[in-house]
Design goal:
single chain, 353 residues, alpha/beta, Rossmann fold, 2 domains, 12 helices, 14% strand, binds S-adenosylmethionine
Length: 353
Amino acid sequence: MADPLTRLAYQTLQTGKSLMGLAHKEVSTRLMEALAPDGSPRTVPMDPKTMVALRSSMDRLVAIDWEQAERGLYSTALLFDAPWLDWASRYPLIWLDMPSTWKRRQERRVRDLPEHVDPSDYPDYYLQNFHHQTDGYLSDHSASLYDLQVEILFNGTADPMRRRILAPLLQGLEAFSGRPSGQIRVLDVATGTGRTLRQLRGAMPRAQLIGLDLSAAYLRQANRWLSALPGELPQLVQGNATAMPFGEATVQAVTCVFLLHELPREARQDVLQEAYRVLEPGGVLVLADSVQLADSPQFASVMENFRRAFHEPFYRDYISDDIDQRLSAAGFEAIAAESHFMTRIWSARKPVR
Ligand SMILES: C[S@@+](CC[C@H](N)C(=O)[O-])C[C@H]1O[C@@H](n2cnc3c(N)ncnc32)[C@H](O)[C@@H]1O
């Protein structure tokens, strides 16, 4: 049983992160309105009921995160895991980067990518400044700011939301409980800078972890963070999730966090089909992505503002897409879903034939 002081420390940390995120957004929005009014997104007003619902949903997320750590699904140390000093030293860079973000938004430039990028190396939909971020996903500069930007965007709940994949994942892997844990392979698709792999390592100290992403820069950043982790080093592979460079039935679990909303619908289906192909029969797929209009209509204005403030070309399509139906079309069974704050978690199994 974890001690009550640790619980208090965790709650305090989350409250602090949430206040810092809100303060950052408030100040940066005012600054943008003053300095680059044409670059300010036209957001819709949020009524107080939505704000209250958001707050209580965030509190529930933190409570579940604590409960699952206390039950031993993962270590309570994971709740405090973050490169605080590194983030503090990078924080000024976020402010320095902002004017170029405003300018891109103002000029509606969404394909402003580094010169070294060869477009033939990537699918066309990927060659954009997602979130209006400088260099899209295609530079070390972008990779070095990404984690902190996501922390700020979600008011410090990014990792608690990522950790919601762990319970369904561990449950799904019970199908392989007769196998030594060192022989379980988990593939994290669109692993980015590796934050999800860190959560996976915290819950599965001996599993073989693999991270796949299209961005060499993001994988380099992941490599920096993950090489300090105890246990076997996760394997990082550069490749396209719509044509995964892995053989059929080679992994027991696939996870995929915050990718689907950034894909056009054909690619969304291709990723699910690829996950199905690489999974061993009986294997589990766990997805985490934005909540959708059907499951969280009370947050419709939050979703709308996200789309307006950030360059998210496929988000509108995503929030009304039927992911259950897509999973079933890919061949999955035992499809289940639940929402935690702004994240929807799906789990599904590849049938044993
Ligand atoms: C929003 S980020 C999510 C990263 C990470 N999963 C997380 O939780 O922070 C989306 C990631 O998907 C990657 N990505 C986008 N399209 C991809 C594709 N077709 N194949 C592989 N990775 C892709 C991007 O490079 C980026 O790292």
